[in-house]
Design a protein that fits this description.
The chain has four helices and two strands, in the order ββαααα. It is elongated, with a radius of gyration of 17 Å. It is mostly helical.
């Protein structure tokens, strides 16, 4: 991560996030929270959702994440959120 300029080490050897590292961490955390809520709302057991989210937050491309996010936001505006969207099929297709 130091080579990628996401972490810096001071003279005492203490590591801290750089601006780039902080932005990356925020993006991963957003994917984590969003993906967890998505899985749970699809009826996936909490324990399994936590396990799957760890894979999704790192492996899901930013492009796929943004597209899924847009679809979910679009359908949350209807009286029955996600009613017309089979999330399980969508996730199987993407993974």
């Amino acid at each position: 991560m130091i080579d990628e300029k996401m972490v810096q080490k001071d003279d005492k050897g203490i590591l801290s996030l750089t601006q780039k590292g902080s932005e990356c961490a925020k993006e991963i955390y957003e994917k984590h929270c969003f993906s967890y809520e998505l899985l749970v709302s699809a009826g996936i057991d909490d324990k399994l959702a936590q396990k799957e989210v760890c894979k999704m937050e790192h492996d899901l491309s930013e492009e796929s994440f943004q597209k899924i996010k847009r679809i979910v936001q679009k359908y949350e505006c209807t009286p029955e959120p996600l009613a017309m969207l089979d999330i399980k099929l969508l996730l199987l297709y993407l993974l």
